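SEQUENCE-TO-STRUCTURE ENTRY
===========================
Question of interest: how does this chain fold, as expressed in backbone structure tokens?
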Amino acid sequence: MVRVRRPVSLRPVRLRPVSLRPVLLSVVALVVTLVATAGCQQQQQTGAGFGWKPLFGDLAKDTSPVLARVGDIEITQADLEQFIDEQPERLKGDFAGPEGERVALRRMIEQSLMVLGAVDRKLYNDPLVARSLVMQRRLTLDKAMRQFGLLKDAKPSEAQMKEYYESNISRYHQQGLVRARHIELATKADADRAWARLQKGVASKDRADDWEHVCEDFSINEKTKKLSGDAGWMGDGTAVPLLDDGMGFSKAVFNMPIGFNPPIRIGDRWHIVQISHREFERNSSFDEAKDAIRNEMLPGFQDAVIKDYLKTARAKYGVKTEGRFAPGEGMTPEQLFERAKLNKDVLRRIDMLTMLADDFPESDRADDALFLAGNAAIENLEDVSVGQRILMRLVAEYPKSELVADAQFIIDNVNDPKFRNPTSIEDLKR
């Protein structure tokens, strides 16, 4: 491996957002699933009654009217409302209005009858059913821990967002814009006549020759004529939707001065253009960029929360692998390292490399794996902080590694645009 005091790859960074945010769980669905599956293993092992009640609701005290009874199951107004709320958005319309509520209640009654039958037949002892119940409990608790235990209020602070903004300020800017209106004409002769009318109106203050009247009399663009020629705000090269050659138009008029501009040919048409407003390109303020910053930071920030918890939890609860997964058994660190390098899925490659460092921290390949994982994250993920944290782990856990200097250099410079996207040989030598 070549060690150089510069990034492993200086190609333009490929933005690939990390999908780290878990799907939001319904609190109702969460509680119902937990209650419905609690005690399944205990029942199979001890013969105790299977804990499948309550079938609906959220365990809160319910004083709403009872709408139906199925055996000893009561279905209340609150149960009905929550049942409808649990449905996917595309199906909620089926339960709207009095007739929809009746359909929903009928579904709840049918479900109750099915559950009663399943319990009578002790179907929870069937291996496939038991497996499904155990799996649903595991998935529900896993998602509950991630969404409610760790990520419910996990978001970057104002200070962290400002620090991120200062480090990436060149990424946040307001595009230069102009607002223009035009009179579109088919021939140069028509354009000259319309221009002469406008000049006359300016000189005489005669309203019959002002912009609105000339546009109405001459413009052949029926879409913008209704707007007195207003083409809206546009950048340099913006596709203006109301014009046939909208991109060519915006390029041609972007640098025109404020005020009326004489006829100009754009494509196969002639245009008289008035520039009424101009906003120059500038860096966005923190307040203007705040929403974008939060959206960019959140996936990596929440990933860090989960990773930090898992590291702490490993120490708290203890993790010991056995059999072919025990230290020194099964695949060697070198084999894992080579397989990881060949994996074309970037996220999978990063996971495999960090797994190597987790499972074989004493291996000679642990620091190499973290170094490659950190650089892969920086090159491919939108939030470079994911890669920074991996490299910081390398620096902290392997201070004697010959890769520490390179890792620290990348950590210190990764937010410099010239570092990630060099434009000259001087950038490469810095």
Strands lie at 66-70, 73-76, 173-174, 177-185, 230-234, 259-266, 269-279, 282-283.
